[in-house]
Amino acid sequence: MASCRYTSVLPPLFWRRRSCTSWPCCCSGRCSIPDARWQVRPETTGTGTIPGHRLVATGRIDGSAREWCRHSRPRTNDRHPAVSDRPGLLLRLARTVLFAAALLPLPALAAGLVNQLQSHPSPYLALHGEDPVAWQTWDQAVFARAREKNRLVFVSVGYFSCHWCHVMQRESYRDREIAALLNRDYLPVKVDRELQPALDSALMNFVQQTQGRGGWPLNVFITPEGYPLYAVLYRPPAQFQQLLEKLTALWREDSGRLVALARAEIAPDFADSAESVDPGAVAMLGEAFEQMALGLADTVQGGFGGQSRFPHVPQLEYLLERYQRHAEASVREVLVTTLDAMAGRGLHDHLGGGFFRYTVDPGWEQPHFEKMLYTNAQLARLYLRAGRILSRPDYTAVARSTLGFLVERMRTGSGAMVAAFSAVDAAGREGGYYLWAEAALRELLSDEHYQVLSATWALGPAAFEHGHLLVEALPIGEVATLLELEPGWAAELLAEAMAQLRVTQRKRSLPVDDKLLAGWNGLALAAFAEAARETGESGYTEVAQGLRDYLAEVLWNGRVLVRALAAGAALGTVSLEDYAYVAEGLLAFAELTGRDADFELAARVAQAGWEAFRVGNGWRLGTVSLLANTPLYEMVADSSLPAADAVLSRISLRLSRQLGDPVLAANALGALARAYPAVTTAAFSYASRIRALETALD
Predict the structure, then answer these.
(1) Which of 178, 183, 219, 324 has the fewest CB atoms below 10 angstroms from its CB?
(2) Mean predicted confidence (pLDDT) in 53-64
């Protein structure tokens, strides 16, 4: 069995393992999974003057993303969850003396370090172009300079639509005193996670494995040699400044010892694959998944997990497939409860269309207001399939509405679709674009229109700082009865009120992240191609053709993909997910057209993915890495996106049968016929992998 360990070299004073709602961040939904068995063990570093604590995995570490937040887990110690809260007096004195050294300034970096992000083609990075922090871009020159000056590299990862990323920018990165500390003592680097998905995944694994939770902004201190040392999510400015000062003192006291601790990682050693996929083992995995999903499901409010609610599309898609084969009432209950809640409550934008990324509450009422292309592409396809499999025309209507939102709001003249809409409006108000003050509604609508709208959307006390989010409380028939109106007239009044609100909303300003990302557009292509096949509507075919052409003729040069382009040059680092999702989209398009050339294009992209990312018995997630200990993964867990290795394996199996390609089949079987026990213990996190294994047996 492979094992891995990460070390936190900061004393327990810095540990803040709390529930995900205690420390604000834009949650990754990837804080822990049931098979992550971590022990936190005290460790003496060197002579014992710097107390540290090492998190050691007692179970298998197989490259999973440590999925599924448990937001309300108990803790034995607010500062350090598994360590006694009674450190000795000498240790406390040692810490106090050591940290006092933080008050002594270090020499400044050489002159000439300036902010490089002004007019950057990434909208997120360009937002930081006016910060007083001398942000650098993620490149080799940063580490060369860090080695020359013996400085830690401070890497801050975020994304355009992340609310708490904007908050930390406003509070800390535009604070001149904090900026001076970062510029003097560190090499500050800003990263758009959507352009560096492999780096983001590696650093997210680090923070999850050392602190038990994850999210954005994700801030990681990295040694000049490229080893992650310590990570922190959002912190208020006073705490963040204190952290910078104390870590500077630790680094000056003995940087060599900290580097040695940061390098203390055991490299994975993955066993060879079995000769073939085991049908019995695969059947057991499917049963384990179903039982785990039923156990985690909330059959009252819908969804899975604790506090926050994410769509969990890979899991719902696999549950749909299982229900289609064996119509179990318990599985249908989970599907219907969850699909109804997502479409009917606050995750769904009932006025403007589309879905938000997640809600912060278990009742699906309070969304984090960012809208992502990948969320909406996946949910459109999920509801399209659910409408057919569950015989629910209302689900099909949700799918059509979501596809319409993608066309109307996210599609560009190139045929490709933008990445996201921000959680904050142009005035910096979270959710401001979507929220309505009661006074504004009364001024905008007639009394009769307001009465119907108020009853339909239950406009009681506003749940948000800037007003109401329209979430349906009563069906229009019940509203008509309540207000003693004819049902048809009540429906007409509501439609007129909603139309007026849409006109007014469009006059508001909502920032857009206009990157055209390969993988996410691959997901959109799959959704529109499937919709075109199922409905026969030429409009969906036209959109699919535009997406296909952008991917095949702009981002693919016949040999390699690029993740995105800016002024004709590659933007960001292409990843395994780009190849997997683009191949999936191209296969869906080929199944729509039936043309051999389209199947062959999908196969070429898939094979290029195998050649670029399969290394021995493991996977790398990106083609280029500046980290010294870039992880190799035996397999990848599902997250908000389906596991890219499983998607590429499943698509390769389907293409191999279509084209008679034994190489694609051999690649897929070699990657899948392994690690059954690890998948069994965390089956809920591996829905895409189990689907791929079942495809291998079809």
Answers:
(1) 324
(2) 33
Whether the CB-CB separation of 664 and 300 falls below 8 Å is answered with: no
Residue where one domain finishes, among candidates 464, 480, 503: 503
In whole angstroms, give the CA distance from residue 153 to residue 302. Answer: 43
| Among candidate residues 90, 142, 102, 104, the one with its CA nearest the CA of residue 14 | 102
* H-helix or E-strand spanning residue 227: none
Give yes or no for residue 551 having a pLDDT over 90: yes
Question: Nearest 5 degrees, angle CA 391-CA 393-CA 394?
Answer: 125
Distance CA 82, CA 646 (A): 35
Which residues, listed in sequence order, are joined to residue 467 by a DSSP beta bridge? 464
- Polymer length of the chain: 698
Look up the domain containing 484 and give its range: 438-503
Counted domains in the chain: 3
Of 262, 294, 329, the domain-final residue:
262
What stretch of H or E contains 301?
none
Q: What is the pLDDT of residues 480-530, one digit of tens each?
A: 999 999 999 999 999 999 999 999 999 999 999 999 999 999 999 999 999
- In terms of Cα–Cα distance, which of 137, 144, 613, 641 is closest to 381? 641
Return the amino acid letter for 306.
Answer: G
Tokens of 23: 């420390």
Do 572 and 635 fall into the same domain? yes
In single-letter form, the type of residue at position 587 comes to L
